[in-house]
User: What shape does this take?
Amino acid sequence: MVCTNDAHYLRKSDAEAHDVLLCIQTGKTLDDRGPLGALLDLFSRLVGKPLSCQAVLCASVQEEKHGTGALTATRGLKPDLAVAVDVCHAPPPTKECSTFPLDSLVIDRSASLHPGLVGLLEAAAKARDIPYETEAEMAAKGNDAWDIATQAGGVAAALLSVPLRYMHTGAEVISQQALERLERLLEGWILGLDEAQAKEALCWND
Assistant: This one.
């Protein structure tokens, strides 16, 4: 017999429920863990598959303070293009709000995001029949997309958001379906990325 003061699990199928329980107990939130878990799963599936580019997963920090993580990574990696993943607000179950459905995926458009890269993501979503919402902003601030776009001489950046209910609380709710859509969209975009097509889309057309 092993006695502890914490909750543990014996079955692999209980891992997700246990993670949610720990989030509630320790005040950890899903706005960091949810999308990152989906991206880790995606990159594990990309191992061994032929890619026309080098794909890098960067788990940055402090995006809502001073963006040190994204700033440092962008200066070090000097990427040709980048997609930031964040969360946006989902409505509470009892109120009508100008937010996004919990199970949806959101593609952002703003003056600081590259329209050609955004178009490639939208095309990838349509090719895989992945429904998405569009969010229009003056500038994509408060997330890594802004910090990436303004570094290393300017980087073509885009922003994907996953709706989250009760953001910044210990009772956050995120949709597994939305996370799966995030994975499928990025997988289709990365695997289908063609160098000539990307150059044409990213070229400035006045």
